[in-house]
Amino acid sequence: MTRYQYTRDICVGLAAILIALFFLAVTPFQVTARSDDYGISGRTLPVLVAGALLVLGAYLFFRNLIHIRRALPRAENPGQKHDRRSRFGRAALYMGAIAVYIVGFSFVDYILSSMLMVAFGMWLSGFRNRIAFACIALVMPALIYYVFSVIMEIPLPESVFGI
Length: 163
Known about the structure:
The structure is a single chain. The protein is an all-alpha fold. It contains five helices and no strands. Helix 1 packs antiparallel against helix 2, helix 3 packs antiparallel against helix 4 (110-124) and helix 4 (110-124) runs antiparallel to helix 5.
């Protein structure tokens, strides 16, 4: 990995830590603490997810902070040079895709819009293994739908057409 990649991963780890701390701070104010017979409340899942994000973000941050000293010097040849305009364009494209994905809930089903978003995100990230690409794009949204709608009985967004 290059110094740029380590620096990028340090920034991502720091962002994950900050997001996790934010969610841990606001969860008690946003979610009621009513508990059922098993001691599980509405706060359980958000706190578990935020805790996992905190641990994984800290791991990513510190692992890359340690390895950045051993990193190769910055790339100077045009094949590895990172242009700010292309990074900004890619980030803008991701944000636009997320906006279209959110609006897509209103017109198409959650599973279909999620499959399209996962496929587009993987394609934009440069993932090219076709078999894994298709499996992940088809299985992950269905798995998320099953966990939230069937197991946890949390309704997911429906389309305008009731699909």
